[in-house]
Amino acid sequence: MHVQQNSEFDSCLSIPFSRSCPRQPARSLNRTMQNDLTLLQSTSLFSGLSQEDLAGLLARMGAVHRSYNRGVVLVQAGSPNHSVGIILSGRIEAVRLAPDGSPLPITQMGPGGVFGDVLGGSSLCSPVTVTACTPCDVMLIPYQRLLCPDGSAAQQQVLQNLVRTISDKYFLLARRVDLLLLRTLRAKVSAYLLSEADRAGQLTFRIPFTRAQLARYLNCDRSALSRELGRMQREGLLDTYRSSFKLRDLDALRKLSQ
Amino acid sequence: MHVQQNSEFDSCLSIPFSRSCPRQPARSLNRTMQNDLTLLQSTSLFSGLSQEDLAGLLARMGAVHRSYNRGVVLVQAGSPNHSVGIILSGRIEAVRLAPDGSPLPITQMGPGGVFGDVLGGSSLCSPVTVTACTPCDVMLIPYQRLLCPDGSAAQQQVLQNLVRTISDKYFLLARRVDLLLLRTLRAKVSAYLLSEADRAGQLTFRIPFTRAQLARYLNCDRSALSRELGRMQREGLLDTYRSSFKLRDLDALRKLSQ
DNA sequence: AAATTACCGTTGCATGTGCAACAGAACAGC
DNA sequence: GCTGTTCTGTTGCACATGCAACGGTAATTT
Question: Whole-prediction pTM value?
Answer without folding.
Answer: 0.83
